């Protein structure tokens, strides 16, 4: 009878479950060919050095130009990609795009330019990223590993999976920079900031909230990071008030709509060209 009841219950919910599951399965199937059909795009969001106003880095952010559904944001397909494991192939592709873009920006504009890529936890487990392959690609492209920053999450720092620990360590030992993304949204205790040699910490936009505690929290986090030798990037900077506050709080870098939305690599090139030109005009005028 229990079995019968269970089956009835299952049948009752089945149509609803199937709908969501089918939508995810369709997306997962379409994603299998998306790389082959060149449907992914990478946009780059400029990162500004707050003390100079210079664009010194950019964050690679993936998009999916879906043939029927238009341009999809990461939130619409990354969770499925993580679930199916497709994120490994997508992440490798984004990494190679980022390498090519940073190389181009270094040759044309700024030899110290850096580009960051976001990491998913599944990329660092067994059967995920092959770190040796990433390093080979950097060698082929003659790019210094420190030009690439891998953004990790708090949950990755906490993970004790052997592969995760080993791969993050290997990236660091190879000279690739590590950045802690979305700091303040997870459950990472401050002690874990020392677990890996982090180069950057990205303050989540929720820290920039217009409440009383906002600026004090920001200042404390920045001071703590600096004590540990970690430079700080504020994310989601949307207005000049925040920009001024962050500079006053000692924040090193800022990223957000007040500076620029994510743009194509060609637009990034143009943005850096405009800066080069204004410097040249300034030089010839002297
Ligand atoms: P994230 O790493 O925290 O990236 C920052 C997100 O904030 C981006 O959303 C960016 O477009 C958005 N943003 C930029 N400026 C502002 C601002 O002034 N205000 C606000 N409120 N938001 C701003 P996006 O591009 O939709 O990406 C969402 C998330 O998807 C990213 O969050 C990242 O975790 C993930 N993601 C993006 N690309 C990749 C990828 O190649 N691989 C993986 N694994 N994850 C990715
Ligand atoms: Mg990020
Ligand atoms: Mg991220
Ligand atoms: Mg973030």
From TrEMBL:
Protein name (database record): EAL domain-containing protein
Keywords associated with the record: Cell membrane, Membrane, Transmembrane, Transmembrane helix
Cellular component terms (Gene Ontology): plasma membrane
Membrane among keywords: yes
Primary localization: membrane
Signal peptide: none
Gene Ontology molecular functions: catalytic activity
Location(s), subcellular: Cell membrane
Residue span relative to the full protein: 746 to 1031 of 1032
Residues of the EAL domain: 24-276
Top-level taxon of origin: Bacteria
């Amino acid at each position: 009878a229990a079995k019968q009841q269970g089956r009835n219950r299952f049948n009752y919910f089945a149509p609803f479950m199937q709908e969501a599951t089918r939508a995810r399965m369709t997306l997962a199937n379409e994603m299998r060919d998306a790389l082959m059909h060149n449907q992914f795009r990478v946009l780059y969001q400029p990162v500004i050095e707050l003390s100079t106003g210079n664009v010194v880095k950019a964050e690679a952010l993936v998009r999916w130009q879906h043939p029927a559904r238009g341009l999809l944001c990461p939130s619409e397909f990354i969770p499925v990609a993580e679930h199916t494991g497709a994120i490994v192939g997508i992440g490798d592709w984004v990494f190679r795009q980022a390498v090519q873009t940073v190389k181009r920006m270094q040759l044309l504009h700024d030899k110290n330019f850096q580009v960051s890529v976001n990491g998913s936890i599944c990329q660092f487990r067994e059967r995920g990223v092959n770190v040796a392959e990433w390093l080979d690609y950097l060698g082929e492209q003659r790019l210094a590993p420190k030009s690439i920053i891998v953004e990790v999450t708090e949950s990755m720092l906490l993970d004790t999976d052997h592969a995760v620990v080993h791969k993050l360590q290997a990236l660091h030992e190879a000279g690739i920079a590590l950045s802690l993304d979305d700091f303040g949204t997870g459950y990472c205790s401050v002690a874990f900031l020392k677990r890996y040699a982090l180069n950057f910490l990205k303050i989540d936009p929720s820290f920039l909230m217009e409440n009383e505690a906002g600026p004090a929290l920001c200042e404390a986090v920045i001071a703590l990071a600096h004590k540990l030798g970690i430079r700080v990037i504020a994310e989601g900077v949307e207005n000049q008030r925040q920009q001024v506050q962050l500079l006053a709080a000692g924040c090193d870098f800022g990223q957000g709509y007040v500076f620029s939305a994510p743009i194509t690599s060609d637009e990034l090139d143009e943005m850096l060209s405009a800066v080069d030109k204004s410097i040249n005009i300034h030089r010839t005028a002297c």
